Amino acid sequence: MGDAQCGKIREAIDLLSFEGEPISWERYGSGHINDTFRLVCRDGEKEHLYILQRINHEIFTDPVSLMRNIAGVTSFLREKIIAQGGDPYRETLNIVKSRDGKDYVTDSDGNYWRGYLFISGATCFDKVRNPDDFYQSGKAFGHFQRQLAEYPAEELTETIVNFHNTPVRLETFKKAVEEDVCGRAHLVEEEIKFVMDRADEAGAAMNMLKEGTLPLRVTHNDTKLNNIMIDDVTGEALCIIDLDTIMPGLSIFDFGDSIRFGANTADEDEPDVSLVSLSLPLYEIYTKGFLEGCQGSLTQAERDMLPMGAKLMTFECGVRFLTDFLQGDTYFRISRENHNLDRTRTQFALVADMEKKWADMEAIVCKY
Question: Which domains does the chain have, with CATH numbers?
Fold first, then answer.
């Protein structure tokens, strides 16, 4: 860590209301967007642990609104947790205010920083160790939906505009095909046909939102296992973290993105698509956990559309990978030739397998 960066970290620490004197800090976690540090402060004999983060304002271009979203949601959750007899210091994120009472600070270079209380005795896992992890993940994100069911989602700012607006993603894709700036369209004619054959279905969820059939909800929009803290003693989901993408959206998209990521039998970028399929046992255990966590807070239309949420999120992700391939791999980081094309084919193979197993997917939702 260079002297300049250390200086900025120290500057941010001095601007935030941490208890005690800073003793040490070190990089923490596996996130790739923000710079995250575990900070230790000491006040006499007592140690205080914190998370210190530099918000990546190139990705999140409106950090002030982003922090307003997080502050609103975590304050709401805190009240719910207290009313239910829970521990508000472990079951939601707690923002450390700046010395002048804000939810963030800016350093002399214009970087945005924030602090959270560190949650001890809990761990985030990058991969599912056993089926119960996936069940706990589903239960946690379902519980998150239930806790925030009464929150006015329309008051939240879209931190990434049209993030899960599948029709908009489709229009961007069509433009990429038409412009073909890298001359790659002829290499992916089969994939382009796959998209266009399903184009009419792409707007199904957003049309239901416009009609009022699906309600606007507070959504997390990054429902991976490693955004849940698992209690080290009980093994149960404790706290949802990484709230940067908290936005107004659809509950079925949070459900669907978890299935896309967690119930695939292969890696997201597996070159051999014969290894790709939807694991119905994992789909079932997540669905069971999610609906148990929701505890009846979803409407019948939302429950009926859960399989479509899984399909749309997988389809949309494949469309985004294919769009980036056509545009020259400018958004998603690649580590080999045709990396985005491999990712595309994996997503589309998963969509195709979901279509084969559609009756089973619907039956599992009905079961729970």
Answer: 3-120 (3.30.200.20), 131-367 (3.90.1200.10)
